[in-house]
Request: fold
Amino acid sequence: MAEQSRRLFLALWPEPALAERLHQLAGEARRECGGRIMRRETLHLTLAFIGAVAEARLAELLAVLGQIRVPRFRMRLDMVGYWAHNHILWAGCAVPPPALLQLGADIRREVAAIGLPASGPPFVPHMTLLRKAHTPYVPAVFEPLEWELAEWALMESCLAPHGADYRRVAAWALD
Ligand code: 3AM
Reply:
């Protein structure tokens, strides 16, 4: 019988008020750029995508991730970016805070050390707002959104006909 596995990634999840603001921004952008809007409850910032992890390796993964120590930090979502190669429109920071980059790097180092390396391109912190957007988006008015981070989470992605559903597997407090 095939071994059970789960599709896992690490992420920062905004609280409902911030998710609502981002969702409004995504709605405004979609009127100009088209594409598919992310559902409000699925908006997140991916720290690292691991992919399929055998159930039997979950405890080891939790143990190495639990050793990571990064101070609490805040970030200011102050820009809307667009990647023409994959048509993703995203919100992010012109200058990402060093603690955020450190968290991404620490996670990547720890998961690689146990043979579960992150896949995908190098870490560029972003929150996907639209997929399949046709053009970049320049908001007429854009008040930066402040985000205070207190924890980060291990999430499971469950593919569904309407897009992925995400379930929280574990979370760790920032120091
Ligand atoms: O955070 P974003 O929206 O850029 O596209 C998926 C999403 O990215 C990405 O992981 C995030 C959480 O699902 N993703 C999905 N499959 C992937 C893969 N095989 C992947 N990233 C890298 N490699």
